Amino acid sequence: MPFAEMQETVFYKEWVQPQGWGDIVFANLEKTTTSYAVFSVTRAERDGVVDAGMRRRMELLVPHVRRAVVIGKVIDLKTVEHAAVADAFDGLAAGVFLVDAKGRIAHANASGSAMLASGEVVRAANGRLMALDIAAIAALQDAVAAAGEGDRPVGVKGIAVPLAAESGERYVAHVLPLTAGARRKAGISYAAVSAVFVQKAGLDLPSPAETIAKLYRLTPGELRVLLAIVERDSIQDVAEALGISQATVKTHLRRVYEKTGASGQVELVKLIAAYAKSPTA
Predict the structure, then answer these.
(1) pTM of the complete model beyond 0.90
(2) For helices 246-260 and 265-277, what crossing angle results, to 10°?
(3) CATH classification (class only), 206-281
């Protein structure tokens, strides 16, 4: 449409002109069956219509904006993938801890959180994963430090560290590297450099967390909230610890109460303690 003709339209007179706009140049960023995204730049009426120079600048700028949109979508996809990995970890009977080179815990699955809550095999001291067995403390620290140097010092099979529980039961911690030595030499920093799997030695028994989840049909998200709420005083603390919204915590917690029949936080603590102490759990 010629610009002079467009100036006579209702659209121009009642919407464009009152805002002081003269012309608009735009480019499509994305168009799918469910979404449409456009990048536009408005030119003031006093500056006249879009000229060749402005079109050229848009040609240079739009590829970078389009690339930013693609990167944003990839990041969103990675967030979903990370959530799926967390749910998969929560389905393991073994306690899984992702730790940095100094043993600081970056993530613990549901079984691992239950182990930390009971404090019978491992504990968290200033955020670091520690063995309860004094004789195993140094061995576990050395294994984690070795894993931090990459796969060569540890080997492909990792390091097994025997642990003794407070009850006298025997456990074993398998330490596996998450980063290759070559990547560390490149100067790249990782929040977690090794995975520590803790389970009973020679046995394949379900963890307390797994038992509770199966018995009450809790989802991985509900189980994480249950384990977190028994350690923390408020919904806000749980939300910050798990990296989710308070509304999500409230929703999971309400369903936990409905499924377990508990009427308050104290009863949830007793529930966790009962299964942590039970010899069949």
Answers:
(1) no
(2) 60
(3) mainly alpha
